[in-house]
Design goal:
Glutaredoxin; alpha/beta; globular; 6 helices; about 160 residues; about 40% helix; 7-stranded mixed β-sheet
């Protein structure tokens, strides 16, 4: 019985640890450190962290689809999307050239050591984490055409 209670308590701690945005520092494209917990904390603002990589075609399709509607979204909602690349040392050099061909209105950060990815227990990308008041509101794993509309509807409910 004690073992069950201990496992329940530890499981509850792990769940509650995932409810808040982790206090992790990653980098901008210019190699400037950014602490996601401290930087993205405006009260009642919705932050959408979209985890992607240059080699992930569904990730790029998702970010392209959102960029087509992003101006409208930000006019209607107090929100910001942050595109977090999880490219490793071998593929990081592809980020800038890929971005040069796109007009994404997002801030792009690089999780080069994948510390944020690990802290959020991300296995597969695309992976979207929606945060409001530093609390993780919901997570979307994967992308299919039209899913950006569903994402926007969910954001409006916040």
């Amino acid at each position: 019985m004690r073992t069950l209670l201990l496992l329940f308590f530890l499981g509850t701690l792990m769940l509650s640890a995932q409810e808040e945005l982790p206090n992790i520092t990653i980098k901008t494209l210019k190699n400037k450190p950014v602490n996601v917990y401290k930087e993205y904390n405006e009260k009642d603002k919705i932050y959408v962290f979209s985890f992607w990589a240059t080699w992930c075609a569904p990730c790029i399709r998702e970010l392209e689809a959102i960029s087509e509607n992003y101006l409208e979204w930000t006019k209607e909602l107090n929100m910001e999307l942050i595109a977090v690349s999880i490219d490793d040392a071998r593929t990081q050099r592809r980020i800038r050239p890929m971005l040069n061909g796109r007009d994404w209105p997002y801030e792009v950060l690089v999780d080069d050591n994948q510390n944020l990815k690990r802290a959020l227990s991300i296995v597969n990308i695309p992976y979207t984490v929606v945060v409001k008041n530093q609390k993780i509101e919901f997570i979307v794993n994967g992308y299919s055409q039209g899913a950006e509309s569903e994402l926007f509807e969910s954001l409006k409910e916040l």
